[in-house]
Structure prediction request, 308 residues.
Amino acid sequence: MTKASEDLKSRTNSNDLVNDNNKIDSPIIWSDVHVHLQDNRFGSDLDIVFNRAEEKNVRRMICSATSPADWRRVEQLGQKRPQLLTTYGIHPWFLRGINGDWEQYLKSMLFRVPRSGFCPAVGEIGLDFAMREKDESLQEDFFRRQLHMANQFQVPVIIHSVQATDRILSILSEFPRFPTLLFHGFVGTRQQIDKIIELGGYFSFSFQNIKPNHKKAIETIIQTPLDRILLESDGPLLFPSKAVFGSNPPLMLEELGNDGFLLNEPALIPVVAAEIQKLKNVPWEIFCQHIQNNEKVFFALWKKVSFS
Prediction:
């Protein structure tokens, strides 16, 4: 663990940056399995974001909604962008103030004719027991009700888990197996990882998981089997350039945030890959083979879902 953190801090020397840039520009097709392109911080002109992603060979993205307020926006993006898969759910941060028949609304969002064989999924949902003002019973109620919907339609589930993984696993055990699960930005123990794999789950990681001071997150990546790792930006969550790369990140994008900070976005996926590959300590070619195969299997599980 300590060595991994030290390695991350030392990557601003010129040789490492040259090697990373070679990886970033390698002809590999990537996916960003968790991003919030509907967020206002991306601005209204998403062509810029998609063009940069295309330049870096990021050709497929999963755009996750967070509350009924953005479900329609996510759906509209999905209708316009063939490379975009969409998910609909209520994130634990946005439960308060939800009223009306949201379950019927969610059902209407899920009951769409699949595009290119892919259906909408349920997400981003889950539990977050690190919130300052949390209502655990309310979170669990919404989580169960949304899982019930996912089970009814037999669609994939995108899960947010913070200091609540054991509880999430307990609740998941109340339901039949889902087509596939994605624990995004996951931090947990090897025992939890093994239980999630038994349920058919995958794990996606972003820059937030490789910050040098985030030792538990780095250890999670090291403990996660290569055949269960996927990559995410979690955009527009802020890009921790100083924390990871010092003053010289290998890929600089426009400063999209009003506060002057760089935002995470799909074009950064190759950089995330290069950092995680170093933590896994396997050859770049082997790492890429695993990621490509993981994506193939993951999306195949998603694609097999039908509304028959």
